[in-house]
Amino acid sequence: MTTEEFLAHLRTLDVRVQAAGTRLRVSAPDGALTPDLRGELTRRKDEILEFLDAIGAGGVRHAFPIVSVDRHDKLAPSFAQERLWFVEQLTPGTAAYNISRAYRLEGELNVDALERSLDEIVHRHETLRTAFREVNGQPVQIITPPDSFTIQFVDLEATPRRSRTTELRRRIATEVQQPFDLTQAPLVRAVLLRLSELEHMFVLTMHHIASDGWSMGVFAHELSEVYRARSIGVPPSLAELHVQYADFAHWQRQWLESGALEQQLSYWQKQLVGSSPILSLPTDRPRPAAETHAGAALSFTPAQQLSEALSALSRREGVTLFMTLLAAF
C-alpha cells in the first residue's frame, strides 16, 4: 500500500493526519485507531511527513473532499487501476496480479452461512463487482448490480489420504493461477475444498485491480464478523460505507488534476536526478527478451540480533528495511 493509499484508508475511518513540524498530529474517533494502525503510523511517520511536505497541503486537503458521485456518469478508474488495466492490455490473460489467500477451517462449518456472508460483502463493496471496459480508448468502471455470489465446492474427502495433500496443493495452484477477465465482474472467486466433515480449505482469489494486501485483511475481518453473525442469526456489526472506491477514484483525479500531479512529478524528478532508470543487478544468466513470471522463493529466518541490527541501520539511514535488504541483495 502506497503512502497515498494508506492516508486515503485512514480518511475512510475518519482519521485525520496533519504535519506539525517533525511530528504527526492525528485525530480520530474513539476506537478508530487500533494498535495495528498506530504501529503503521509510527513505521510510516517519515514517509508520511515527506509526502505531506511534497504536496504542500499541510496534511488535510479540504478543497476536494471525498463525496459520493453519480453512478450514471462515466466513472474513470483510479490511477492505480488504470495502470493495472494498461498492463492487462499489454499481456492479456496473465494471473500475475491475482491476490490469493488460503485459510484452513477446522471444526463444524456452516457452508450456507459462509456463502451468504460472501454474497453480503460483495454486495457491500462495489469494487468487487466492478468490471472495466474501454470507451473511446480509455478504461471506465462498470459497477454491476448485486447478484448472488456462489462458492465453488470441491469434495476431496474420498481422495486417499496418502495423495490428498498433493491433490489439495494441485487444486489450490490451479485456482490461484486462473486469470480474470477484467471486462466481467465480479473480480473475486472463492473455492471451498472439503477434506473431512470438520476440516476445509477456503481459497479466496481477487484481482489486484479490485483489491490489495491491506484490503484482503479488511475482507477477512468483515467475512469473519458477518459469518459469526449469520451463524447465530443476528445482524453483523459493520459500519455503514458512506463512500466507495469509485468515489475515491473521482476525488483522486479531481485533486491531482488541480495541480498536485505537477507538484509530485516535479518532486520526484528532482529526487531521481542522476539515477539509472534500470536496476542492473548481476545475474547468472542473460535476461530473457520477454517476462515469463516463473520464479521461486527461498525462505529463511535471520537471527534476532541480526534482524534488530538491520532495523536499527535502516532507521539511522532514514530508509525502510526493504530498501536496506534490496541494497544488500
Number of helices: 10
Structural class: alpha+beta
Uncertain regions spanning at least 5 consecutive residues: 57-63
- Rg, Cα atoms, Å: 22 Å
SSE string, helices as H and strands as E: HEEHHHEHEEEHEEHHHH
Bulk shape: globular
Q: Report the end-to-end length measured between terminal Cα atoms.
A: 23 Å
Average pLDDT number: 89
Number of strands: 8
Widest β-sheet, arrangement of strands: 3-8-7-6
Q: How much helix is in the residues? A: 40-55%
SSE layout and pairing:
Layout: H1 3-12, E1 16-20, E2 23-27, H2 35-43, H3 45-55, H4 79-90, E3 98-106, H5 111-124, E4 130-135, E5 138-143, E6 152-155, H6 161-176, E7 188-196, E8 199-207, H7 213-232, H8 245-271, H9 304-317, H10 321-328
Parallel strand pairs: 6-7
Antiparallel strand pairs: 1-2, 3-8, 4-5, 7-8
Helix pairs in contact: 5-7, 9-10
Q: What can be said about this structure in brief?
A:
This protein is of the alpha+beta class.
